[in-house]
Amino acid sequence: MWHSRLSSRAIAQRSTCKACARARVTLDSWDGYPAERAELADFLASRGKGNTLVWTGDIHNLYAGHLLAGSTRAAFEMSTGSVSSLGMGDVFQLGSVKLVEGLVRKANPHMTHLDLGHHMYVRVTLTREAAFFEAVSPHTVRRASSPFSVTQKAHVLRGSLEEK
Fold it and tell me: Counting beta carbons within 10 angstroms of the beta carbon of residue 97, is it exposed (0 to 12), middle (13 to 18) or buried (19 or more)?
Protein backbone atom coordinates (compact mmCIF):
# COMPACT_ATOMS: atom_id res chain seq x y z
CA MET A 1 0.00 0.00 0.00
CA TRP A 2 1.17 3.52 -0.81
CA HIS A 3 1.06 6.30 1.79
CA SER A 4 0.45 9.83 0.53
CA ARG A 5 1.26 13.09 2.26
CA LEU A 6 0.18 16.51 1.04
CA SER A 7 2.13 19.72 1.54
CA SER A 8 1.42 23.19 0.24
CA ARG A 9 5.20 23.83 0.22
CA ALA A 10 8.19 21.78 -0.90
CA ILE A 11 9.63 19.65 1.88
CA ALA A 12 12.89 18.50 0.26
CA GLN A 13 15.75 20.99 0.24
CA ARG A 14 15.86 23.23 -2.84
CA SER A 15 18.77 25.54 -3.49
CA THR A 16 20.31 27.01 -6.63
CA CYS A 17 23.91 26.73 -5.45
CA LYS A 18 25.89 25.68 -2.37
CA ALA A 19 26.61 29.28 -1.38
CA CYS A 20 22.90 30.09 -1.76
CA ALA A 21 21.98 27.14 0.47
CA ARG A 22 24.02 28.67 3.29
CA ALA A 23 23.00 32.27 2.72
CA ARG A 24 19.37 32.10 1.57
CA VAL A 25 16.67 30.81 3.87
CA THR A 26 13.02 31.10 2.96
CA LEU A 27 10.25 30.70 5.49
CA ASP A 28 7.88 30.02 2.56
CA SER A 29 9.18 26.44 2.32
CA TRP A 30 10.58 23.81 4.65
CA ASP A 31 14.09 25.21 3.99
CA GLY A 32 13.34 27.72 6.75
CA TYR A 33 12.66 24.89 9.22
CA PRO A 34 15.55 22.39 8.91
CA ALA A 35 15.06 20.76 12.34
CA GLU A 36 11.37 20.16 11.70
CA ARG A 37 12.11 18.85 8.19
CA ALA A 38 14.69 16.42 9.61
CA GLU A 39 12.18 15.24 12.23
CA LEU A 40 9.52 14.65 9.57
CA ALA A 41 11.98 12.86 7.24
CA ASP A 42 13.14 10.62 10.10
CA PHE A 43 9.52 9.81 10.96
CA LEU A 44 8.68 8.95 7.33
CA ALA A 45 11.82 6.84 6.94
CA SER A 46 11.08 4.86 10.10
CA ARG A 47 7.39 4.27 9.37
CA GLY A 48 7.02 4.57 5.61
CA LYS A 49 8.68 1.29 4.59
CA GLY A 50 9.70 2.84 1.27
CA ASN A 51 6.19 3.57 0.13
CA THR A 52 5.57 7.23 0.96
CA LEU A 53 4.74 9.76 -1.74
CA VAL A 54 4.61 13.49 -1.03
CA TRP A 55 2.50 15.74 -3.26
CA THR A 56 3.57 19.38 -3.17
CA GLY A 57 1.88 22.40 -4.67
CA ASP A 58 2.26 26.12 -5.29
CA ILE A 59 5.71 26.02 -6.87
CA HIS A 60 4.76 26.68 -10.53
CA ASN A 61 7.60 24.45 -11.78
CA LEU A 62 8.27 20.69 -11.79
CA TYR A 63 10.49 19.44 -8.97
CA ALA A 64 10.67 15.75 -8.12
CA GLY A 65 13.04 13.55 -6.21
CA HIS A 66 13.81 12.02 -2.87
CA LEU A 67 13.19 13.46 0.54
CA LEU A 68 16.17 12.17 2.51
CA ALA A 69 16.60 11.26 6.17
CA GLY A 70 20.40 11.30 6.23
CA SER A 71 21.21 9.01 3.30
CA THR A 72 17.93 7.04 3.56
CA ARG A 73 15.12 7.68 1.09
CA ALA A 74 12.23 8.75 3.33
CA ALA A 75 9.77 9.60 0.53
CA PHE A 76 9.47 10.52 -3.12
CA GLU A 77 8.26 14.09 -3.53
CA MET A 78 6.58 15.45 -6.65
CA SER A 79 5.46 18.98 -7.42
CA THR A 80 4.03 20.06 -10.72
CA GLY A 81 4.29 23.14 -12.81
CA SER A 82 1.23 25.22 -13.50
CA VAL A 83 -0.91 24.91 -16.59
CA SER A 84 -1.68 28.64 -16.81
CA SER A 85 0.05 30.59 -14.00
CA LEU A 86 3.45 32.14 -14.59
CA GLY A 87 6.50 29.94 -14.05
CA MET A 88 10.20 30.60 -14.40
CA GLY A 89 10.00 29.93 -18.15
CA ASP A 90 7.61 32.87 -18.55
CA VAL A 91 9.88 35.27 -16.69
CA PHE A 92 13.32 34.36 -18.09
CA GLN A 93 14.63 33.51 -21.55
CA LEU A 94 15.05 29.79 -22.30
CA GLY A 95 18.86 29.97 -22.10
CA SER A 96 18.63 31.47 -18.60
CA VAL A 97 16.13 28.80 -17.52
CA LYS A 98 18.48 26.03 -18.71
CA LEU A 99 21.38 27.67 -16.83
CA VAL A 100 19.33 27.79 -13.61
CA GLU A 101 18.19 24.17 -14.11
CA GLY A 102 21.85 23.12 -14.35
CA LEU A 103 22.74 24.97 -11.13
CA VAL A 104 19.74 23.53 -9.29
CA ARG A 105 20.56 19.96 -10.43
CA LYS A 106 24.20 20.33 -9.35
CA ALA A 107 23.28 21.67 -5.91
CA ASN A 108 20.44 19.16 -5.36
CA PRO A 109 21.50 15.62 -6.36
CA HIS A 110 18.42 14.22 -4.58
CA MET A 111 16.27 16.03 -7.17
CA THR A 112 15.87 13.61 -10.07
CA HIS A 113 13.37 15.54 -12.21
CA LEU A 114 13.28 19.25 -12.88
CA ASP A 115 11.52 21.42 -15.45
CA LEU A 116 11.51 25.17 -14.98
CA GLY A 117 10.56 26.06 -18.55
CA HIS A 118 7.19 24.46 -19.33
CA HIS A 119 3.57 24.74 -18.26
CA MET A 120 2.26 21.30 -17.27
CA TYR A 121 0.22 19.01 -15.12
CA VAL A 122 1.28 15.61 -13.78
CA ARG A 123 -0.60 12.42 -14.56
CA VAL A 124 -0.12 9.69 -11.92
CA THR A 125 -0.83 5.96 -12.03
CA LEU A 126 -0.38 3.88 -8.88
CA THR A 127 -0.08 0.10 -8.85
CA ARG A 128 0.87 -2.24 -6.00
CA GLU A 129 4.46 -2.31 -7.25
CA ALA A 130 5.15 1.18 -8.56
CA ALA A 131 4.07 4.78 -9.03
CA PHE A 132 4.22 6.16 -12.58
CA PHE A 133 4.40 9.91 -13.17
CA GLU A 134 4.15 11.74 -16.48
CA ALA A 135 4.58 15.51 -16.84
CA VAL A 136 2.17 16.57 -19.59
CA SER A 137 2.84 19.92 -21.22
CA PRO A 138 0.73 21.89 -23.72
CA HIS A 139 2.65 23.17 -26.75
CA THR A 140 1.20 26.61 -25.99
CA VAL A 141 -1.09 28.07 -23.32
CA ARG A 142 -2.42 30.64 -25.77
CA ARG A 143 -4.83 28.17 -27.48
CA ALA A 144 -7.33 25.95 -25.67
CA SER A 145 -7.00 23.29 -28.37
CA SER A 146 -3.20 23.06 -28.14
CA PRO A 147 -1.72 19.57 -28.42
CA PHE A 148 0.12 18.14 -25.40
CA SER A 149 3.41 16.25 -25.03
CA VAL A 150 4.86 14.18 -22.20
CA THR A 151 8.04 16.03 -21.19
CA GLN A 152 9.22 13.91 -18.24
CA LYS A 153 8.49 10.46 -16.78
CA ALA A 154 9.27 8.78 -13.48
CA HIS A 155 8.75 5.18 -12.38
CA VAL A 156 9.20 4.76 -8.61
CA LEU A 157 9.28 1.28 -7.03
CA ARG A 158 7.31 0.65 -3.84
CA GLY A 159 9.44 -0.68 -0.99
CA SER A 160 12.67 1.06 -2.01
CA LEU A 161 11.56 4.30 -3.69
CA GLU A 162 14.17 3.45 -6.32
CA GLU A 163 13.60 4.97 -9.73
CA LYS A 164 13.65 2.85 -12.86
Answer: buried
